[in-house]
Amino acid sequence: MSAARVVVPKVQRRFEQPMVEGRGLTLPAYHHAVRGGRTLFPSRVFGADELARVLKDGHQSRKIGKVITKGRRRGWPIYTLTLEERATCPRSCGEWQSCYGNRMQAAERLDAGDEAATRALMNRLAHEVVQLAEEHPRGFLVRLHVLGDFFSAEYVAFWAGLLRDVPALHLFGFSARDPAGAIGRAIVAMMQQHGWDRAAIRFSGARGPMMAARVLDPGDVDTEAIACPAQTGGTDCCATCALCWNSQRSISFRRH
């Protein structure tokens, strides 16, 4: 497809209301969702065969956006994957009690709770990724994960295999996994194998000025990170920003 045929939509997001910041919901340590390692909204967890699509158009997200508008990926569509928060996350995550999923009742989370659910999820993902590559041979971007995290080294290897087999696929996202742990090492290996250009994954809560993401409470300052432009008013959404997948600099996000 030539650059002249790239169509950038006038409206990037289905939901245009601004993101509310500084009002995250923190659950008490004794809350059943915190103790049980589950979402606050279990009725919003679905098997992969229960939804029409597991990879959702970025247009459905108030922060992501539909089509990239800048850089060499201009015109590429963005898709998102949402898993169940806490159920797929490490308990060491600094946002275990204050996950922004606590305020996302409408989100459809994918179940990866047992072997059968995981197998069904991977089968659907593989099918949809191949289908998207046929529709967008120039390339497309997948945000991992709106909620949830890489839940096993095998799951990381699954994505690494898709990157190998589907050249149009590109990933960006965040993980609260310890880079020195088994799953974290698998993520690092995937990025080393395919490069930041194909797999731009930041480690949430990590220190330092590179490849990390951190949450700031009102009044906090992080001199080692770039403040998310979509939150500061510097740009409309991820699709009009492109910072997360272009720069390896650490990024800070206001609590929301």
What does this structure look like?
Helix 3 packs parallel to helix 4. The protein has a domain of 177 residues. 23% of the residues lie in helices and 15% in strands. The strands form two sheets. The protein has an eight-stranded mixed sheet. It has a two-stranded parallel ribbon with strand order 1-4. It has six helices and ten strands. The chain has 256 residues and is of the alpha/beta class.
Whole-angstrom Rg: 17 Å
Described by strand count, sense and barrel closure, the largest sheet is: 8 strands, mixed
Helix-strand topology string = HEEEEHEHEHEEEHHE
The level of helicity is: 10-25%
Q: How many helices?
A: 6
Distance between the termini: 38 Å
Total strands: 10
Q: Order of strands in the sheet with the most strands?
A: 2-3-5-6-7-8-10-9
Low-confidence stretches: 15-20
- Give the averaged pLDDT, no decimals: 91
Q: Which overall shape is indicated by the principal axes computed on the Cα atoms?
A: globular
* Structural class computed from helices and strand pairing: alpha/beta
Give the percentage of residues in beta strands: 15-25%
List the helices and strands and how they pair.
Elements: H1 32-36, E1 45-46, E2 56-57, E3 78-81, E4 109-110, H2 115-135, E5 140-144, H3 153-165, E6 169-175, H4 182-194, E7 199-204, E8 212-216, E9 226-227, H5 229-232, H6 243-246, E10 251-254
Parallel strand pairs: 1-4, 3-5, 5-6, 6-7, 7-8, 8-10, 9-10
Antiparallel strand pairs: 2-3
Helix pairs in contact: 3-4
